[in-house]
Design a protein that fits this description.
single chain, alpha/beta, Rossmann fold, 7-stranded parallel beta sheet, globular
């Protein structure tokens, strides 16, 4: 038995996690795998690299880990991804809409193509995936949809207009979908992390430093963590543990919630 295997509350469940080849998504996938679920790792890295990462998680936890390289900018590929998981594994119990991209600039200088891409990946892709996954979940009388929000689904920061707007949209979409399926055995929730040091954040540092005219080190201390009271980054596995709980039967009464895991950010 793998050393890090947890209880088997998710044994027999099938989970698809978008944007799970790195960062928060990988933390979520690993926690679901540790709980016994069959997982599908999604990412836009090369297929060989994705399969290698999936094989490593499979070996570590002793569970099946599939892969998908669907382009979330293309709705048909999203629908096909959901259908392929359902066909290959017989069902899709858990959908985690996690994939995200970022761009930092003042509204007056924000490139329209970047705005559209962020909306497509963060807001539109979860809509298409959820729409495709819900009917079978409803028919089965059990399902879990978890959207990765952000504290930026609850509060805003300057220079991130598209990201803030998309994440606020995810909060509204989560609540609406939850209400629509409330009596079916399907729950829909969002987890809202504070700053997690992922590849996405690392790529922001230079951009933030240039936009704000400060050194990268100051971006970390004076921008990213200044409002995060625990004064450290949230860990991907901590977000994953919260998602894992939401996917168990113990969390059947939690739905329509946007749950902060932000080190106290939104407590202010």
């Amino acid at each position: 038995m793998p050393a890090k295997q947890l209880n088997q509350l998710l044994k027999g469940r099938v989970a698809l996690i978008t944007g799970s080849s790195t960062g928060i998504g990988m933390g979520i996938l690993r926690q679901l795998a540790a709980g016994g679920a069959t997982t599908v790792m999604h990412g836009l890295v090369g297929e060989e690299e994705l399969r290698s990462k999936a094989a490593a998680v499979s070996k570590e936890y002793g569970t099946t880990v599939g892969t998908s390289t669907a382009n979330l900018l293309k709705p048909q590929e999203i629908r096909d991804m959901v259908a392929r998981v359902q066909d290959e594994y017989g069902k899709l119990d858990i959908l985690v809409n996690n994939a995200g991209i970022q761009y930092v600039a003042p509204v007056t200088e924000f490139p329209e193509d970047k705005w559209n891409q962020i909306m497509d990946v963060i807001l539109n892709a979860p809509f298409h995936a959820t729409k495709a996954a819900l009917p079978a979940m409803i028919d089965a009388g059990w399902g879990r949809v978890v959207n990765t929000g952000s504290m930026h689904a609850l509060v805003a920061s300057p220079f991130k207009s598209a990201y803030n707007a998309a994440k606020h949209g995810i909060a509204g979409f989560t609540k609406t979908a939850a209400l629509e399926v409330a009596t079916t055995g399907v729950t829909v929730n969002a987890v809202c992390p504070g700053y997690v040091m992922t590849e996405l954040i690392e790529k922001q540092l230079d951009n933030q430093a240039k936009t704000r005219g400060i050194p990268k080190e100051k971006v970390v201390t004076d921008v990213l963590l200044v409002d995060q009271p625990i004064k450290r980054f949230v860990k991907p596995e901590e977000v994953g543990a919260l998602v894992r709980h939401l996917c168990t039967d113990d969390a059947a009464a939690i739905t329509g919630a946007c749950l902060s895991i932000d080190g106290g950010w939104t407590a202010r």
